[in-house]
Specification:
44% of the residues lie in helices and 12% in strands. It contains 13 helices and 8 strands. It has helices at residues 12-15, 23-32, 44-52, 64-67, 79-92, 111-123, 139-147, 163-166, 176-192, 204-213, 234-237, 255-271, 279-291; strands at residues 36-40, 57-60, 97-101, 129-131, 152-157, 196-200, 218-221, 229-232. The two termini are 32 Å apart. Bound molecules: 3-methyl-2-oxobutanoic acid.
């Protein structure tokens, strides 16, 4: 039996609390040992479905460059594009906290520029928090944003906006020295006021060490099971994006195949003149359904 066909005895909808997730709840979840669940979302319909499933955080990731725009990297993703998708996601999400990614070079030039750009994600997109990549070089910016009341999530390890410098999408912090640097970055981000930290593609042992040394929660992606929460790109989880599936991702469904099959059946019925049925046939069908 595929994992997609396994149904919980009680639907998630009934088990999941309906209270809106707020930034301070995440530290409480870490304290209580409750794992945090985050998925990326890019539109209102998907946000509504993930919300219904009880996902705690929805990230409007700059991965939208890959899965929505078909680009090779996240580097060309613009602030306007993230605002556009954030607005859609915030329309669909009721309970989940919506985090918007700050795209490449929208926060590195100066703290003032970062503040203006982050403000647009809150005011125009409706985000409740922003995420930005990097360690000690972005600490001053994170401090200014959080002091101004804008919650910031950090992102360390494999940071896709630095893919050119890192030499591609490869695991980070692989030796002791790099691991120590990453731990120092994590402590600095916490000290600057970040409320949570994404740890991407680092050894499990390093993620475990960071998680135990921080009060704020860590959310792992390819960083092992010891993080306080997990995030994946939703298109990977749903089996919608098959150009490249990272080794750490898990497909919980194969919706790509479902979509192709539905479109093929529609095309076949249109070509054979089966769809649409005549209005008389549709009325008869509606009548039968009502009688049932
Ligand atoms: O953009 C994104 O989707 C991300 C996640 C992979 C953490 O940053």
């Amino acid at each position: 039996m595929s994992s997609a066909s396994v149904r919980p005895a009680v639907s998630n909808h009934e088990r999941v609390p309906t209270k809106k997730v707020r930034v301070p709840d995440l530290a409480l979840m870490k304290e209580r040992g409750q794992r945090i669940v985050m998925l990326t979302a890019y539109d209102a319909t998907m946000a509504r479905l993930f919300d219904r499933a009880g996902v705690d955080l929805l990230l409007v990731g700059d991965s939208l460059g890959n899965v929505i725009l078909g680009l090779d990297t996240t580097i060309p993703v613009t602030l306007n594009a993230v605002i556009h998708h954030t607005r859609a996601v915030t329309q669909g999400a009721c309970r989940a906290l919506v985090v918007a990614d700050m795209p490449f070079l929208t926060y590195q030039v100066s703290a003032e520029q970062a503040m203006q750009n982050a403000a647009r994600l809150f005011q125009e997109g409706g985000a409740a928090a922003v995420k930005l990549e990097g360690g000690r070089p972005v600490v001053d910016t994170i401090r200014k944003l959080t002091e101004a009341g804008l919650p910031v999530m950090g992102h360390l390890g494999l940071t896709p906006q630095h893919a050119h410098r890192l030499g591609g999408m490869r695991q980070q912090a692989r030796n002791d020295e790099a691991a120590q640097e990453l731990i120092l970055d994590a402590l600095a981000l916490e000290d600057a006021g970040a409320f949570a930290l994404v740890l991407e593609a680092i050894p499990d042992s390093v993620a475990k060490e960071v998680t135990s040394r921080l009060k704020i929660p860590t959310i792992g992606i390819g960083a092992g099971p010891q993080c306080d929460g997990q995030v994946l790109v939703s298109y990977d989880v749903l089996g919608l994006f098959d150009e490249f599936v990272p080794s750490f991702a898990k497909q919980y469904a194969h919706l790509g195949e479902v979509v192709v099959s539905a479109a093929e059946t529609f095309a076949d019925e249109v070509r054979r003149g089966v769809f649409p049925a005549s209005s008389a046939a549709r009325r008869a069908q509606a009548h039968i359904s009502v009688e049932k």
